[in-house]
Structures are given as structure tokens and as C-alpha cells.
Amino acid sequence: MERPALELAARDILLGNLRRGTAEWNGQEYSFVVPSLTGYPFQWFWDSCFHAIALIHIDCNQAKAELDTLMSAALPNGFIPHIIFWESEKRDYFLSKNLVARVNPNFSSTIQPPILAYAVERVYQATGDEAFRERSLPVLVNYYRWLKENRDPDKDGLLSIIQPEESGIDCSPKYDEILKLTDLCNQGFIEALNRIYSSYELIRSDELSMLNADVFHVEDVLVNSIYALSLQSLARLLGDTDESLNTLNDASKTMESLVNKCWDVDTEAFLDLNGLQEIPNRTVTISSLMPIILPDLSPYIVKRLVEKWIMSEDHFWLPYPLPSVPASNSKFIPGDPHGFIWRGPSWINTNWFITKGLKLHGYQELADDISAKSLACIQQSGFREYYNPYTGEGLGAKNFGWSTLILDM
């Protein structure tokens, strides 16, 4: 598919999924792209960041509107929800089919991977719009301050998540142990989630109490890699200021903790830390590769991630890479997971992250190969939620927004 045709196809998806209006519950105007008109009819945090990055290549004004809408949902304390129910008339039906933690009926009470500052920086770089940067900065500063103050109780620079949806890769097999998941299917996962929700019922408004409850307390590698990346973006957006320097120091602290606490010399991969005791989770998944997106990662570690894991046909180098779980994992499911996602298929958003990291560290040809195979999936099946890593068959939601990230690969 030639570039003009690809951009036209992506435009059809993004603008076809566009929602504009005024929310009944707060009178606020919104303009954003839903991930999918059917399964995901609201605004999701990291999806919107991905949509904005793809929109840079199509409609920069809508890219700004996407992030402005997301940031307009920030609470006074800085928190930004992972789902905002702008169209409240659709909310009750959605909630009858899906579990969402809430203390307010109009948005979730949980986070998603904090890529917002990176997305804002990309849109600012594409547009040069100083007004956009200026109105974004107070929201960003408050948001990342909230994360630091509420999700890093041991002050090691690593954020903790309190339930699997906060990582964006909720059903990943790396969570099976901490979830005590024995019934390996979507229903079993929902039952495990219900146990977490029940444990938090009386303390849902108290972040520290939920972390201290140690029900689901994970210093997640994917989340923290994105956190460090975005702190670096925020520091650049802040310019030559003391706050910028402090933000860079925070980014460095997170990076150091990822290497010192999460890099496992035996596995030669990055591992999540489970619980207050920070027990390494030895299940390798796509998130184990995510620190490759960080510029200061040592060449030795990058080389081991590439040679042992990414390029290995036993692990991640399948015909349509990169699977969300290596083929060597006994729980690897390459085909239709029937809702039990992130256990095998390849996703465009994680491929986008990994190709960015590979290019950053000098692996241009390998990155181009992954991008070409990602494009082949889209040519074969359209913009789908995820793809079979052996056949390239599209699976999950159709006309899926973040798969338009292929424009940025």
C-alpha cells in the first residue's frame, strides 16, 4: 500500500470514529476519537494519546482537540481517568457488560500508561503551537505530580498499579500468579477482577490504602518505561526552568530503578516487581522489552534484548512480529483469544513502541522489518485491534483507532 492510500485509509478510520458534542453531565464540549465505534465507545486515556500521534499525519487541529479533550477531564488534584464517559447515554449499557472502577459515575477511578506528555510533545513539535503548549503544561505538571505523590509509595521512582487494567495489557499472563488465576479464560479473569474490586470497595478513594492492601500492587515495567519517556518529554516542554531540571531528575531516577531493580541478569529481560516485597515476576512478555524506548539504556542491555528475545524465532520473531507473549511461553495463544487478550497476538501499538526504541539504538533495518510486517497485517485485514502473529489475520475490534499508528512507524 502506497503512503497516500495508507493515509486515506487511516483518515477514514480516525475521522469515522470521531465524536463531537457537549457532555450532558458537565456542559463541556468534547472532540475525540473512540478506539472503536462498537466495543469501545468512549474516550480511553492511552488510546487518545495514540490517536493524537497518528492524527499528526492527517489533521493536526484534531490532534490538538483530542488531547485538549482528554486534559479537560483532569481533576483539580491532577488525576486524569483512564475512561471518560462523555456520552452518558451509552454508559449504563457499557457498564452492564464491562467492569470499570469508579467513584464518580462519569469517569473511571484508575489510570493507564502515562504517555500523555510524550503525545503533547509530539503534537507541539508538529504544530509549533505555543498556545497549545502553554495550556497543556499546567495539566501535565499536576498530572505527573499526582502520579509521583500517589503511586510511588516507596519513593524509588517506580509507579505502582493497583489492578491489571491500569497497565493497558490487562489479561497478560504475567498477572496470572498475582491474580491467583486458575481458570484461564476471560470469565476466569473477570472473576479475579471482581475479587480485587471487592477488596477495594471500602477504600476505593484512598490510593495509599489500596497500595498498602497489597491485593494487586505491581511496579510494572511497561508503565514505568512510558513514565520515564514522558517525564523526559515534560522536561523538554518545560524549557529552561528549575521544574524542568527536577522532572529530568525524576526521569533519571525511574530509569535507574528499572535497570537496578527490574533488569534480571539471568533472564536477560526486564521483570515486573510484585507486591510490597517487590518479588520479581519471571514471566517474560512484550513489556519486558519496553525499556528499549529509553535513550539512556546501555548498549549491552539493548543488545541482549534484541539478540536473545526480539530476533529469536523461539520467542518473539514470528512471521508477523512482535507477539504480546513469546511463543516459548506455555500460555501463548496466537489466535482468537475470545476476549482473553494480550496473551499472544501482535499489536500495532507495542510494535510502534519497539520500533521507536530500535531506531533510537541503531537497529534501523530491524525496525523497518517490523514496520513492514505490521503494514502487511493491515493490508491483509484492515485496521484491527490485534493480529495473529503466524498468519497476520486481523482479530478483535474492527476499524481500531490506534492501529493507525502505522503512519508513525
Poorly predicted ranges = none
Main β-sheet, spatial strand arrangement: 5-8-9
Specify the biggest β-sheet: 3 strands, antiparallel
Q: Into which percent range does the helicity of residues fall?
A: 40-55%
Radius of gyration: 20 Å
Q: Which outline best applies?
A: globular
What order do the helices and strands follow? HEEEHHEHHHHHHEHHEEEEHHHEE
Question: How many domains, in number, for the residues?
Answer: 3
Helical segment tally?
14
Strand content: 5-15%
Structural class estimated from helices and strands:
mainly alpha
- Report the mean per-residue pLDDT as an integer: 97
> For the terminal residues, how far apart are their CA atoms?
14 Å
List how many beta strands DSSP finds: 11
